[in-house]
Amino acid sequence: MPQARRHRGAFGDDAFGRRAESLARFFGTPKYIVAQSVVVVIWIVLNSIAVVSKWDPYPFILLNLAFSTQAAYAAPLILLAQTRQADRDKEHGDLIDKRHTVLEESAEKQTREIIELLNSNTSLTQQDKELTEQIAKLTREMHAVLTKRER
Length: 151
Prior knowledge:
This protein is mostly helical and about 150 residues long. It is about 80% helix and about 0% strand. It has three helices and no strands. The chain has helices spanning about 15-25, 30-50, 60-150. The model has no long low-confidence stretch (mean pLDDT about 85).
């Protein structure tokens, strides 16, 4: 699909749709998973070894709430990204189908033209054969007439 064409999915081609899709794609990257794991480990370590001012003591309910909130936002963003990708795939498939149709029509036209040329060639070959036979017959007749005269 040409780059100049912009995708218009369920959320259009606005900044929100593009940003949401890029965020959803980022959620599946190793960079995000590693960063999130580091944050969780730091969170747990700091809350486990803190003597005073544990902002989220075991069983880490605030951390659990943060994950739930993140999941509540991530799921629709991921679905949005999948929908937009499916729309792009469908559009690309439609373009391929159109191209195949054009190629099939072109191939059928060329096949018809070749058949016409073959038929024309067959006709010309038949005419050539008939003319050659007539020439051969006339040549035999002339030969017969000339050989009678010489006797």
